Amino acid sequence: MLARKSIIPEEFGLPGLVSRMPRKPVFRDRVNKARFIAKNGSCNLAHKNIREQGRFLQDVFTTLVDLKWRFTLVIFTTTFVSSWLLFAMSWWLVAFAHGDLGRMEQNGTSCVTHVKSFTSAFLFSIEVQVTIGFGGRMITEQCPTAITVLILQNIVGLIINAVMLGCIFMKTAQSNRRAETLIFSRHAVIAVRNNRLCFMIRIGDLRKSMIIGATVRLQVVRKTTTPEGEVIPIHQIDVQIESAVSSNNLFLLAPLIICHTIDKISPLYDLSAMELQCSDLEVIVILEGVVETTGITTQARTSYISEEIQWGHRFVPIVTEEEGVYSVDYSKFGNTCKVTTPHCSAKELDEKPSILIQTLQKSELSHQNSLRKRNSMRRSNSMRRNNSMRKANSGGMRRNNSGLASGKVQFFTPADSVT
Questions:
Q1: Residues 6+ positions from 231 with CB-CB distance below 8 Å
Q2: Counting C-beta atoms within 10 Å of the first and last residue's C-beta, which end of the chain has fewer, N or C?
Q3: In this structure, are residues 159 and 165 in contact, taking their beta carbons and an 8 Å threshold?
Q4: What is the largest CA-CA distance in the chain?
């Protein structure tokens, strides 16, 4: 049998109407993505399958500085003990070759006095390398070989001491130690500043010694796919920031708010508040400068993922003037307050500027309404207090009047007094 045709046209049927209805955009839940830079500035990157391990040995000094303290101390201890043992064997061989081990000492006939065993040769090796000189053992002029070994051991000991001292100095004066006192706000904020959507963070320095030539760089890291189908897992995009000078150097005397205007060249230009929460981008902040006291270049890093970006917030002021001195309250360093901000993207704001005007008007009306409510509540509370005070005063006057009315006045005549 043939299918029965409906009287109602297909475009006006239920499937046709449903297909033509406007659908709201569906946002997928954000997949938990690994951070590229941790909050403390460490890089979340693991190096695997490195075949040319010998390249690290070509730069031994940097390798020693990069090692942890326990490994560095173990290496230096092993190096010292090994050098002492090596030259102890050399002194024992010198004494053995000269025949000083099995005979009694005579005046000026031994290469090294009081070296009769390997233990005494080891003690003499330590005395020579660390220049202790107890006085019991000493070299004589009978053996040119012993003089050569003495010169070699002194040179080797100086080299080991120089490397050890330099490595320890570099490890204690590393630039990342100074970065511990360079702080960033826990969250980033997006709000309207100068009629434009802006991405803002706050940075500060806890020390009084300044960072000379401080510069701040912002990068957005996200996974992108090119039109040719190439997947770039870590695509770094530079982000421009506002700067008072052309050289982009900051005078980091007090905490500063770093502002990025979300314009057409910004990677955040097409993102609204909802789309930002569902995106997998990561904003990396890099603060660089020269330490004033040591002259070493330092770098502090942090990052912000979408959950750490607060839309419609602004940092509270923390710098105040007290008795002629500017004071910074670091307890409010990361505090923010809510402000009226459109939830649309910066692109939509550029296309429809009326959205910002309507939002500001609504916020102004709500602010005025809240002020009116507060004033009305204050007036009602003051009227209640006045009424209660009036009632209390009137009640007291009534009690006083009733007390006066209840008292009776009696008049006594002389006759009454005689009776």
A1: 223, 224, 225
A2: N
A3: no
A4: 158
b/e code 191-211 from CB counts within 10 Å (16+ = b): bbbeeebbbbbbbbbeeeebb
Sign of CA dihedral 270, 273, 277, 278: negative
Pairing mode, if any, of strands 297-305 and 319-322?
unpaired
Q: In this structure, which amino acid lies at residue 181?
A: T
pLDDT over 90 (residue 1): no
As a dihedral over the C-alpha atoms of residue 142, residue 145, residue 149, residue 150, rounded to 10 degrees, the angle is 20
Q: Which of 191, 160, 161, 177 is nearest to 313 (CA)?
A: 191
Instruction: Find the length of the chain.
Output: 419
pLDDT at 105: 56
Q: Indicate the residue type of 277.
A: Q
Per-residue pLDDT band at 25 (split at 50, 70, 90): very low
Prediction pTM value: 0.66
Per-residue pLDDT, 180 = 85
Q: CA-to-CA distance for 276 and 236, rounded, in angstroms? A: 17
pLDDT digits (tens, 9 = 90+) for 90-130: 999 988 888 777 665 555 577 888 888 898 899 999 988 88
Bridge partners, residue 220, by sequence: 237, 283
What's the distance, CA 418 to chain centroid? 107
Torsion of CA 108, 114, 118, 124, to 10 degrees: -90
Percent pLDDT > 90 in the chain is 21
Query: 375 by DSSP, 3-state: which?
Result: helix
> Quick one: CA torsion of 387, 392, 396, 402, rounded to 10 degrees?
70
> SS3 of 363, please?
helix
Integer Cα distance of 403 and 410 in angstroms: 17
Q: Is the pLDDT of residue 284 over 90?
A: yes
List, in order, residues 6 or more apart from 361 with CB less than 8 Å away: none
Structure tokens at 227: 């039109």
